[in-house]
Amino acid sequence: EDQVTQSPEALRLQEGESSSLNCSYTVSGLRGLFWYRQDPGKGPEFLFTLYSAGEEKEKERLKATLTKKESFLHITAPKPEDSATYLCTVHSSGGSYIPTFGRGTSLIVHP
Amino acid sequence: DAMVIQNPRYQVTQFGKPVTLSCSQTLNHNVMYWYQQKSSQAPKLLFHYYDKDFNNEADTPDNFQSRRPNTSFCFLDIRSPGLGDAAMYLCATSMTSGNYEQYFGPGTRLTVT
Questions:
Q1: CA gap A5, A25 in Å, rounded
Q2: Under a CB-based contact definition with an 8 Å cutoff, are residues A35 and A25 in contact?
Q3: Fold for the domain defined by A3-110
Q4: Which of A37, A47, B18, B30 has its C-alpha lying 20 to 30 A from B3's C-alpha?
Q5: Which residues, given as ranges, of chain B have pLDDT below 70?
Q6: Taking CA atoms, what residue in B is nearest to A105?
């Protein structure tokens, strides 16, 4: 059974204080790992897809990396508008287009 | 812009009174999903359509039904809402070729009184 574990559950940062969110996964053949951002009361918004170990993707202050066991979402010099819940999902070769979700990390960035 | 649209954004219904939520997409994606999300929890898959093929999750209550009359539209019917069905309902789409990233609608917040 595919599993995705995100840590920490919640993270509070001061503006400008860089940090990382973790997504550990166990899947039977990784087809893709996805990061989404979800603002309160809204649907998740796609951020990144990673397919193979060593791959990295960047977007503004966010950088996602992937190893064979986990992914990190690095946030550099965060701003209050980066406050959101960040969800990690994986697609496995067994589950194909049905993702397994992590429970998310709630990030709050204080000004 | 291509997108996923959900209506209504907010729905209040009475205990036991049937309610229908709608989702439409302009992305021409072949897979459509319905998720239930409660506060501080990950979205929980209720069912999905692969083209016209309906797939029900094993633990989705019989109280929940769905229809997909065409590629663009999908409906979620809750036949007899209970207080425990109050949640955010999210519709999402994806393609089965190439990337599997999902595109979510803004959600419908359901309140049961």
A1: 6
A2: no
A3: Immunoglobulin-like (2.60.40)
A4: B18
A5: 1-2, 98
A6: B40
